[in-house]
Design brief:
Layout (H helix, E strand, L loop, with lengths): L3 H23 L2 H24 L9 H15 L8 H23 L4 H20 L10 E2 L5 E4 L2 E5 L3 H24 L1 H11 L1 H6 L4 H27 L1 E2 L6 H14 L6 H17 L5 H15 L6 H6 L7 H35 L1
Helix pairs in contact: 2-6, 2-9, 2-10, 2-11, 3-4, 3-9, 4-9, 6-7, 7-9, 7-14, 10-11, 11-12
Length: 357
């Protein structure tokens, strides 16, 4: 037995995925590239949501990880030949993750407004570093003349120059990121991250390694933001310092608020809504920024859980059957058991570290 709400949990994503697969065969190339851009921004918003929605940490430097990955691709690309996808993508993600580890290890020693300001400061430092660096093109940025490709000998496996190939690669990456984030937030690690968000003192009192959990989430989030930055640079053909600025970080934060913080795919919906809204308003009025701001304010005030709240209004949850209630209780018990396992493991590590120390 299942409820109508649980049906919607699977039916709605399946229908959206089917529409996304069919889109390139029925829509003009312009709309395919537009949706590709929206999906990339959705990946960036979902990466930010891991630390904002599930970790309770409002970061204003995620655009820096996004832009750094783009610069890595630009600097690693030959001038007249396409870069090799198989090693430039891991390199860009690794550099973004390394920068996130350095910033996170320092910023996570602060809390609240101080954490926001420290991440903002790091983001601006990286913005001016690339803005004033001649090797990165300065304020003009750097161009990428050929999109990356994946070769096996003389056989081209993936050529991102082809819009259809590029779109399906981005779509596949998006599905993989959703699966990865869903696995993370449902794991004992995700429960520990949420416990630190809800009550840090209690989490510390129970022995959770709060700093270690938050730093790991911050690094994973930075790495996923790097994936988005790599494909954004490949699509646009250039990377500029503005890709690292706090304006983009704030815009992505708005996407998270519009889509909903306590949902893995909610920020993706927020990205689609915000980018689609911009496109419509630009074609309608010169004062589209003003209109966009008013609409965003209305959405945040009327839908505090994001636009996904509309789905629960259309498909209200019905009374849960006893079978499902017992299943949910079993899953909750299992999750608590897993979290306890993580706690015991962390304690054992601490004890072992103390003995070796």
């Amino acid at each position: 037995m299942t409820t109508r709400g649980s049906h919607a949990t699977w039916i709605v994503p399946s229908v959206l995925l089917a529409l996304a697969i069919a889109l390139p065969f029925v829509a003009p190339t312009y709309y395919v590239q537009f949706i590709s851009k929206a999906l990339i921004m959705g990946i960036l918003a979902m990466s930010l949501n891991l630390v904002v929605g599930y970790g309770g940490l409002v970061s204003l430097c995620h655009a820096a990880f996004f832009g750094i990955a783009g610069y890595v691709l630009a600097l690693a690309s030959p001038k007249y030949d396409p870069a090799a996808l198989w090693w430039t993508l891991p390199l860009a993600v690794a550099v973004s993750a390394a920068v996130a580890a350095v910033i996170g290890s320092l910023a996570l020693r602060t809390r609240g407004i101080y954490f926001i300001m420290v991440t903002l400061a790091f983001g601006e430092m990286l913005f001016f570093f690339f803005h004033d660096s001649k090797f990165a093109g300065g304020s003009d940025g750097a161009f990428i003349y050929n999109k990356p490709s994946m070769m096996l000998g003389n056989i081209t496996l993936l050529d991102l120059e082809k819009p259809l190939v590029y779109y399906f690669v981005v779509l596949a990456v998006l599905v993989a990121v959703i699966a990865l984030l869903t696995m993370i937030v449902r794991s004992p690690f995700g429960h520990a991250l949420a416990a630190a968000r809800d009550n840090e003192r209690r989490a510390r009192a129970l022995g959770f390694p709060v700093f270690r959990v938050r730093l790991t989430a911050f690094v994973i989030s930075g790495a996923i933001a790097g994936i988005a930055g790599y494909f954004a640079a490949a699509q646009f053909g250039f990377v500029a310092p503005q890709m690292l600025g706090w304006h983009l970080s704030a815009t992505v934060l708005v996407m998270v608020l519009i889509g909903g913080q306590r949902s893995v795919a909610g920020p993706l919906v927020g990205a689609l809504v915000l980018i689609g809204l911009e496109e419509v308003l630009k074609a309608t009025t010169e004062h589209w920024k003003l209109a966009e701001g008013l609409i965003v304010i209305l959405i945040v005030l009327m839908l505090p859980n994001g636009v996904r709240q509309l789905l629960s209004m259309v498909l209200p949850a019905q009374e849960t059957s006893p079978v499902i209630a017992r299943s949910a209780a079993t899953k909750q018990s299992s999750s608590l058991s897993d979290a306890s396992g993580l706690l015991r493991s962390a304690r054992n590590d601490d004890v072992a570290g103390g003995r070796h120390g």
